[in-house]
Amino acid sequence: AALLWGTILLACSCGPGPPRVGAAPLLAATYVLDDANGLGREFDGIGAVSGGGATSRLLVNYQEPYRSQILDYLFKPNFGASLHILKVEIGGDAQSTDGTEPSHMHYENDENYFRGYEWWLMKEAKKRNPKIKLIGLPWAFPGWIGKGENWPYDYPDITAYYIISWILGAKQYHDLDIDYIGIWNERAFSSKYIKLLRYTLDKHGLEQVRIIASDRLWEPISFVMMIDSELHGVVDVIGAHYPGTKTVQNALLTGKKLWSSEDYSTFNNDVGAGCWARILNQNYVNGNMTSTIAWNLVASYYEELPFGRCGLMTAQQPWSGHYKVESPIWITAHTTQFTQPGWSYLQVDGHLEGGGSFVALTDGLGNLTIIIETMSHNHSKCIRPPLPNFNVIPQRATFYLRGSFYMVETLQVWHSRLDFESGNSSLFQRLNPVQVWKGRFSLNLNVDEVYTLTTLKTGQKRRCPEPPPPQPFPSNYKDDFNIRNPPFSEAPNFADQTGVFEYFVNASDPGDHVFTLRQVVVQRPITWVSDADQTISVIGNFKWVNMTVTCDIYIEKPRDGGVFIAGRVDNGGIYVRRTKGVFFWVFADGTYRVTSDLAGQEILMKGLAGVRDNAWHTLTLNIQGNSASGLLNGYLLWENVIISKPGNGWAALGTRSFEFAQFDNFHVE
């Protein structure tokens, strides 16, 4: 009877049933999972990046309960993505992909640990998962660190002091313990600086903070570590970006932890989910990487900026409350809900005979989690690097559990199937448990599937009530910036693209302009990309064509200071230097200009305005069809300027250079 029962159990399998009569038999293969001869590498967790840059910009403006729901989907254990790691940008006042993030030290004698939103985000993550690991990494640095040079390593003691200040501020003001610190995102590293950083960390009692280097490629960091024993001693993790699931020999020879410290960066539809499923497994199977970190955490920036919707989920409409839990969230859950940092990979090859991969992990206390993916080539392409061709076919996999797993009798099953025919994907569904007979079970695997088989019974697919439907940005929008104790340093919905615009209390103003918005970066930062030479913050609906923009402006810089308001602004992010639109400028020397570009080179009209510095003036820009006009203090200053292109874009405001200037009573219609 027992024998017969075993045969019946073996014939049962989750997956798509037996092949049809006349169909070719499934490719069958066996795989052994055994811990008797020791374990593989220690697992360090799955995470995501906020920043690099301003990718969470719009998230903070969401009203409750929607903001908390989004955070629950990202961070709450056994809920959604249940992330193990949060990596944030250490703001450097410069453009770092989709915007600028403010530094905690704009100037040498300035410290403020309440700017931006990364502090808030780390606290929200910790609130939901006290065990989450935190990483800080700079993309750019304030200009004073380089003393005028676009380079952070000429004065390494200053750079180290700046980074240590951020770590100490996280603890002192927010009770946040930073676990890992990086060097300079995707740019050169300095061995001298890395050693000094370690020394300075230790001197400040921060021995527990680990160093990741170099957040670029496997080389030259791995080679330099092999020939410099002191550097080898201070780098804890080699982090590579977009490694294509491969590592290099030197990296392996260092004996260090290897991470894909930035990966994914792919549009978050089902192909993005396929990309994510494939690399989450294959970064270990092919490349021995024990952590994979997605750029980016949540697409909370205007979609028309570079790499729109390249987050694990989408939350880009705080004005409507609409957000979308995209399929990569549930692909993440297949790994994160059934593993923890500190678990170990089993020593297995991990390649499936019919294409695809599997990993197996254990906590060393008897628990076992197996994650299988069968993503096809065309349905799992990431944005980079190019993906060599491969084939995946339906197959039958039989697993033999050996060693301490031999006694496992039942495995919980979670399943996702990406359906590219009907678009009707099934994501993170709990199936009937698999019965294990004498350490053996079988599965029929189809193409574009993910399975998790686990001894853990804690997995959950949680659902919040459906969020409100999407709505375009309000077509009539005002902000007078009159807020005494703002919860964040930046005004809602303004997305800074060069420079930093902050709430400001103008204590010397006796009248209507006590609370304003002020541009505060007065020296070109050590940049990560080509920031503009002007500062600019965009807002609104990229599809806007006809608009009236009004704003009170205050030039602080005498003689050559200047400010603008703009409409139909067509660019931002890493492309900010080439931004076009309709720009209405006034200058401290009393002149005005109308240009079709942010650089101010393509002049459509110019003349005298009589504006002066350190006085308030009201600018109005009206764009209708192919014509624009401008008012100063309510009086027509110029009109009938012909606009050929761009045909649509955001509203914006900004300054002629890195200079102080103030804005108030902003209104776009």
From TrEMBL:
Protein's cellular compartments: Lysosome
Residues of the Glycosyl hydrolase family 59 C-terminal lectin domain: 496-669
Pfam family, one: Glyco_hydro_59M
Reactions it catalyzes: a D-galactosylceramide + H2O = an N-acyl-sphingoid base + D-galactose; beta-D-galactosyl-(1<->1)-sphing-4-enine + H2O = sphing-4-enine + D-galactose
GO cellular component, one term: membrane
GO annotation terms (biological process): galactosylceramide catabolic process
Catalytic residue positions: 186, 262
Domain Glycosyl hydrolase family 59 central: from-to ranges: 345-460
EC number: 3.2.1.46
Record domain Glycosyl hydrolase family 59 catalytic: where: 43-337
GO molecular function: galactosylceramidase activity
Main location: other
UniProt KW keywords: Disulfide bond, Glycoprotein, Glycosidase, Hydrolase, Lipid degradation, Lipid metabolism, Lysosome, Signal, Sphingolipid metabolism
Annotated signal peptide: 1-23
Family statement: Belongs to the glycosyl hydrolase 59 family.
Descriptive protein name: Galactocerebrosidase
